[in-house]
Specification:
CATH architecture: 3-Layer(aba) Sandwich
Largest sheet: 8 strands, mixed
CATH class: Alpha Beta
Number of strands: 8
CATH topology: Aminopeptidase
Number of domains: 1
Oligomer: single chain
Shape: globular
Family: Belongs to the autoinducer synthase family.
Structural class: alpha+beta
Pfam families: Autoind_synth (PF00765)
Radius of gyration: 16 Å
Distance between the termini: 20 Å
Catalytic activity: a fatty acyl-[ACP] + S-adenosyl-L-methionine = an N-acyl-L-homoserine lactone + S-methyl-5'-thioadenosine + holo-[ACP] + H(+)
EC number: 2.3.1.184
Keywords: Autoinducer synthesis, Quorum sensing, S-adenosyl-L-methionine, Transferase
Helix content: 25-40%
Order of helices and strands: EHEEHEHEHEEEHH
Number of helices: 6
CATH superfamily: Gcn5-related N-acetyltransferase (GNAT)
């Protein structure tokens, strides 16, 4: 299930968030080599992990096996602050668009082959399922260029914001990706289920927002 954690419920989910901080450190520092953000406490936290951040945790038997973060684009965010060179124009800013970042899946939940990882698919489905009732229409993200086709196959209308650039030996492109009800239906089709991916408490919150 996908647990959505915001400023409103983070105090009740401290154990899960501790797992999330440590998972981020394992993925981005220990595996990907982002030495600039290494911390002695093995928790990867940055200036954007504030009251505006929305954390999506894939939880399996009380273990966090996947993570991503949404940030509002109507205020400073990662692309606009640290990577504006990926945009040929001004980075997007809208109350209806979020930034999707810090995307990672634990080693125990990774799969091989060309099919989209089920945990990553659940997280993306959770973003759309949670976001649509709140008036979200899409996200911006910095991602490997190979992800572009995958997003289009999921009926997410992804458009590059600039030309790809090499960052830490990976070809990265910034995208503006729109989603709607068709995207959710395609994601559900890919998952093979129309059941909600959201944890019960997150599902209730999504209904209340609609």
């Amino acid at each position: 299930m996908i647990q959505v954690i915001t400023a409103a419920n983070i105090d009740h989910n401290r154990d899960l968030m501790e797992q999330a901080w440590r998972l981020r450190h394992r993925i981005f520092v220990e595996e990907m080599g982002w030495a600039a953000i290494e911390r002695d406490d093995k928790r990867e936290i940055d200036e954007f992990d504030d009251e505006h951040a929305v954390h999506l945790l894939a939880v399996d038997d009380n273990e966090v096996v996947g993570y991503s973060r949404l940030l509002p684009t109507a205020r400073p965010y990662v692309l606009s602050t640290h990577l504006p060179q990926l945009c040929e124009g001004v980075p997007p800013s809208s109350p209806h668009i979020v930034e999707w970042s810090r995307i990672g899946v634990a080693g125990s939940a990774r799969t091989s082959g060309r099919r989209l990882n089920p945990t990553a698919l659940a997280i993306l489905t959770g973003i759309v399922e949670w976001g649509l009732p709140r008036g979200l229409k899409g996200f911006v993200s910095e991602m490997p260029t190979s992800w572009l086709l995958r997003l289009l196959q999921l009926h997410i209308h992804a458009l590059p914001l600039g030309l790809p650039q090499m960052i830490d030996d990976v070809e990265i492109v910034a995208v503006n990706a729109g989603f709607d009800g068709r995207s959710l239906r395609q994601l559900q089709k890919m998952r093979g289920s129309t059941d909600s991916v959201l944890a019960p408490e997150s599902r209730v919150a999504a209904r209340l927002a609609s």
